[in-house]
Amino acid sequence: MTTPHIPLLELSGTPYEIGHAHGSCLKTEIRAFAETITNVHHVNNPWLNIKHEELSTFSMLNIGHLERFSPDFVQEMQGIADGADIDFEAVVLLNSFLELEDLRAPALGGALLANRLWGCTTFNIPGKDGREGRPVLGQTYDMERYYRDFLCLLRIKPNSGPEMLIVTLAGIIGLAGQNNAGICAVINKIVAPDARPGVIYPFIMRSILGSERIGDALGKVIFSPRASGLNYQLASPKVAFCVETSASRYEILQMDGSLAHTNHYVGTTMRQFETPNWLSHGGSMVRKQVADEFLHSNRGKLDSEFLQQLSRDHTNFPRCICAHGFKDDPAEVAFETIFALIMDPIEHHMDLCIGNPCQNQYVRHSLPAKQPDSKN
């Protein structure tokens, strides 16, 4: 197996300073990302004839919601833009990349998304199912292979709040990760027909990871004026949550033990809101069944090493947990696992694999333990 490397950025300071350092360090990657992102949407859905200006206009519809939700993250995006010497609107567009899935068929949610798409598999193991009573959270993150070229790892130490370890794409403030207050978060994309201008996923993810308490993190998911639907899996040393959302609705799934999630709604409330036919195949259902069976049959043994085995599963290849594009697909449409991660909310470490876990090794990254607040 190989060990691909991605940039690791050590960022600290004010939100603007964090963003500016991000933009400066990854200027080449961010500019390349911004210059090519429209082509991905065009290649996947050429009949829509999507123009860059349309994508930018759509993304900027969210800006008022973003400014109200977190002026700090808006300042961080401005810092990224200034550091990379690109327009602020281009950074907003990059950070709206997952919401743009809902625009590929305007007014139809994801009803006309390309049939090559499948998606991520997440797995949430509470302490009672983990090895030695330890909770674990992880996922395979699946996108078009194109996105893999822009992966990076951010270690962020803000002026206030917990330190964070975040996997993301150049110019985007966060995809998945953990903090040293013991909170971890991953996601699955789900498409409901109520997408609207609102708060985009990277803002919600960063708000989760900026939380000191799991209840506050959960609140950021369920009470935010979301722009679109996602499933959020959250873990902490004591409790865990799986929350299905659309833009305007949510359902907290019952967790009697370990729980896997893929790219379709399973909650009794949310199932009725899924966009009809946005998944043109049953791969999401296969991945969930395979993952749930693995988790249930290995209760008490589940740790990073065990879950790495799950992340390499090829049932229903290539639409499998370790996702692979179809042979000869170009990078813009080849849907693959671009990274996988497994996190420990107690020890604050992340095992990260770049690319397909069946081909590449996991590498451990750690956060320092959070220091207790000083008392006056």
Structure summarized in a few sentences:
The strands form two sheets. The chain has an eight-stranded mixed sheet, with helices on one face. It is built from ten helices and 14 strands. By secondary structure, it is of the alpha+beta class.
General description of the model:
- Helix 5 (71-84) packs across helix 6 (88-95) and helix 7 packs antiparallel against helix 8 (214-222).
- By secondary structure, this protein is of the alpha+beta class.
- 29% of the residues lie in helices and 22% in strands.
- The strands form two sheets. It has an eight-stranded mixed sheet with strand order 1-4-5-6-7-8-9-10, with helices on one face. A six-stranded antiparallel sheet has the order 11-2-3-12-13-14, with helices on one face.
Please tell me the overall pLDDT. Answer: 92
The neighbouring-strand order within the major sheet is: 1-4-5-6-7-8-9-10
Largest sheet: 8 strands, mixed
- What is the domain total for the residues? 1
Choose one word for the global shape.
globular
Work out the helix count.
Answer: 10
Give the topology, please.
Blueprint: E1 8-13, H1 15-25, H2 27-44, H3 52-60, H4 63-69, H5 71-84, H6 88-95, E2 121-125, E3 136-144, E4 151-158, E5 164-169, E6 176-179, E7 184-189, H7 201-209, H8 214-222, E8 230-235, E9 240-245, E10 250-252, E11 259-261, H9 283-297, H10 304-311, E12 335-344, E13 349-354, E14 362-366
Parallel strand pairs: 1-4
Antiparallel strand pairs: 2-3, 2-11, 3-12, 4-5, 5-6, 6-7, 7-8, 8-9, 9-10, 12-13, 13-14
